[in-house]
Design brief:
It comes from Paenibacillus motobuensis. This is Diguanylate cyclase. By secondary structure, the protein is an alpha+beta fold. It has 3 domains: about 180 residues, no CATH class; about 110 residues, PAS domain (Beta-Lactamase, 2-Layer Sandwich); about 160 residues, Alpha-Beta Plaits (2-Layer Sandwich). It has 15 helices and 12 strands. The strands form 3 sheets. Strands 2-1-5-4-3 form a 5-stranded antiparallel beta sheet, with helices on both faces. Strands 7-8-6-11-12 form a 5-stranded mixed beta sheet, with helices on both faces. A hairpin with a 2-residue loop joins β7 and β8. α1 packs antiparallel against α2, α3 runs parallel beside α5 and α4 packs antiparallel against α5.
């Protein structure tokens, strides 16, 4: 409803300007054909014009203004005809009829057509007299009627054609807006002349703040995570100074404290002279896709059951330690004793629960700088950094002591022990597979010695 009112206001203002030109042309025609200002009804013209101008300026009563503007050309021409029966004045009536097309409303065109016909009948009677019996006089009026009907019919076809096209465009625009709303997209424009930033309402869904909060880039930059701020500022420089398109991902802090990921696209816009006038682009909420990406990465490097790192992550971290110059590393290979009996007696779901509890206990026995992973089944690896054989033996003893406390898994009281093999590498230069094999040999030595023990592989690393 509000859009309709604004549309009428806009068209009223346009028509007011056209009518001003129409009256000026009509007055010129009147003077050129021998008329004088004395022939005009100056007070009536000024009063009518003032009313139209005031209604247009103060945006009051748009429908009344619209009807007055449709009717005013006929009232004006009737006042001219009362003193000057000039054919040119009547010709101007056709222009007045066509003016009603600006509203694209067949009812207004029909009203204007009726006023045109009544004015023509009045003009004909005044010009030819009351009898109007001559065939020429009747044919003149018939031409007017035919022209009137033709304009109305033409207007009806034109209005339906235009409204049909607009309807399709609006449906397409509605569909696009619906898509944009669903993907949480925010459009933005930064005007360099005024240093003003304009954002679409999507920024409210993204940050929880109204769009008018962000009057410049500083307000938006305040929401950027500090770690990502240099990247965003660099992108600003590339757009403004280097005039490059940018595409980056960064994090924003919402008003409720949550962190969201956004993709920022920006494009510098130049005028015909090649001068930079404004920047524009979009902000797209990619939080869900980023979370899926992080989850997939997590699954690629972690064990589903225990949440511990897997062998791939273990290998990656070992390479990083070596690149940082780490030495004196000890690798522990841990294997539960008789784990198959737990699965056979209580079922695999109890066995899985035991592995989860075991992973938690093992994690509590090492330092933050150390690394633990589930190798597979009931086998675990622990990498001790800045360690030696004595420290590794102490950790193994601490692990066996922690396992001596019974596990409680789904109301079952379970006892578990582990055999632990240790391989110490003074220079940490062996490949992971080689270190695992050497620690595995020590673990089997512990099992052969009666289980629930640890053993250290004294084999020297190959040269």
């Amino acid at each position: 409803m509000m859009n309709r009112v604004h549309d009428v206001h806009f068209k009223n203002n346009v028509l007011l300007k056209i009518l001003s030109g129409f009256y000026t042309v009509s007055l010129g025609v009147h003077l050129l054909t021998g008329g004088s200002l004395a022939d005009l009804s100056i007070p009536a013209s000024v009063a009518l014009g003032s009313v139209l101008v005031l209604l247009g300026l103060y945006r009051r009563y748009p429908v009344v203004s619209m009807l007055l503007m449709i009717s005013s050309p006929y009232l004006y021409l009737l006042s001219l005809m009362a003193t000057d029966l000039n054919l040119l004045n009547f010709i101007l009536l056709g222009f007045a009829l066509l003016l009603s097309l600006i509203y694209l409303d067949i009812r207004l065109v029909t009203l204007s057509g009726l006023l045109y016909l009544l004015t023509a009948m009045y003009w004909s009677r005044v010009l030819y007299g009351a009898e109007m019996v001559a065939g020429s006089e009747r044919s003149d009026l018939l031409y007017v009627v035919i022209f009137d009907l033709f304009v109305i019919a033409f207007s009806w076809v034109l209005i339906n054609l235009v409204q049909g096209r607009w309807g399709k465009s609006e449906r397409g625009l509605t569909s696009i807006n619906h898509i944009l709303e669903n993907i949480d997209i925010t459009t933005w424009v930064y005007d360099l002349a005024s240093s003003r930033l304009s954002l679409s309402p999507g920024i409210t869904r993204l940050t929880g703040l109204p769009a008018d909060t962000f009057t410049d880039f500083h307000a938006l930059l305040e929401l950027v995570e500090p770690a990502d701020l240099p990247l965003v500022q660099l992108s600003q420089k590339e757009m403004i100074i280097d005039r490059k398109e940018v595409l980056l991902e960064c994090r924003l802090r919402r008003i409720n404290g949550d962190i969201c990921w956004v993709q920022l696209r920006g494009t510098p816009q130049l005028n015909e002279q090649g001068h930079l006038v404004h920047l524009e682009g979009v902000l797209i909420d990619i939080t869900e896709s980023k979370e899926r990406e992080e989850h997939m990465e997590y699954l690629a490097y972690h064990d589903d059951l225990t949440g511990l790192p897997n062998r791939a992550y273990f290998h990656m971290r070992l390479k990083r330690y070596r690149s940082e110059g780490a030495i004196n590393m000890a690798l522990m290979f841990i294997d539960l004793d008789n784990f198959k009996d737990v699965n056979d007696t209580y079922g695999h779901h109890i066995g899985d629960r035991l592995l989860q509890e075991l992973a938690d206990r093992l994690s509590r026995q090492i330092r933050e700088s150390d690394l633990i992973c589930r190798l597979g089944g009931d086998e675990f690896l622990i990498l001790l950094t800045n360690s030696d054989e004595k420290h590794a033996s102490t950790v193994a003893q601490r692990i066996n002591a922690s396992l001596a406390v019974p596990f409680h898994c789904n109301h079952h009281r379970l006892q578990a022990t582990a055999s632990i093999g240790i391989y110490y590498s003074p220079d940490g230069c062996e490949e992971l597979d080689q270190m695992i094999n050497l620690a595995d040999e020590a673990m089997y030595e512990a099992k052969r010695s009666g289980r629930n023990q640890y053993a250290v592989n004294q084999s020297p690393s190959p040269t």
